[in-house]
Fold:
Amino acid sequence: MTHDPKFIAALEPGQLSAARAALLPRRRLSREVTVLLILLRLYVLAAIPVVAYAFIHALLTQA
Structure:
């Protein structure tokens, strides 16, 4: 199904919201992309305590 902007602009509001609510199939990712996303998640989980510590430390030493 192609999404021509002319046809999408011609839809009524109810039709447009129904078209946007249609679920898309889940994307199949390669093993490399999956590993990179897992590593990114681990990095974020490790960075949150560091940022929280720096923020709290800055608040306490400012007095």
